[in-house]
Inverse folding.
C-alpha cells in the first residue's frame, strides 16, 4: 500500500522528485497529497521502495522525464513535487 506523508516528514537524505537533477536516482519513500493525482501516481508505480531516476527535463524545466519500473514517464513539476524520494 502506498505511503502518504506530510511535508514535515522529509528526512535529510530525502528530497522530492522535483528537486532532482538529470541522472540522479533514488527510491520512493512515499507521496505527499491526496485525491485523484495521488491515486494516479500510485497507479503509475510510484509506491514505497520503487527505484526512480530523473532522465531529463524539458527545455523550460516542465515536464520531467522519469524512469520507474523500467518505464519512461512524463510528470509535471507539480506532480513530481508530491513524490518523496530517498537519494541513492
Amino acid at each position: 500500500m502506498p505511503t502518504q506523508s506530510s511535508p514535515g516528514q522529509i528526512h535529510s537524505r530525502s528530497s522530492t522528485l522535483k528537486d532532482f537533477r538529470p541522472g540522479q536516482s533514488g527510491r520512493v519513500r512515499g507521496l505527499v497529497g491526496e485525491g485523484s493525482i495521488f491515486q494516479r501516481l500510485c497507479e503509475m508505480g510510484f509506491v514505497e521502495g520503487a527505484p526512480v531516476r530523473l532522465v531529463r527535463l524539458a527545455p523550460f524545466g516542465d515536464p520531467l522525464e522519469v524512469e520507474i519500473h523500467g518505464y519512461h514517464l512524463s510528470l509535471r513539476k507539480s506532480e513530481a513535487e508530491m513524490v518523496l524520494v530517498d537519494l541513492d
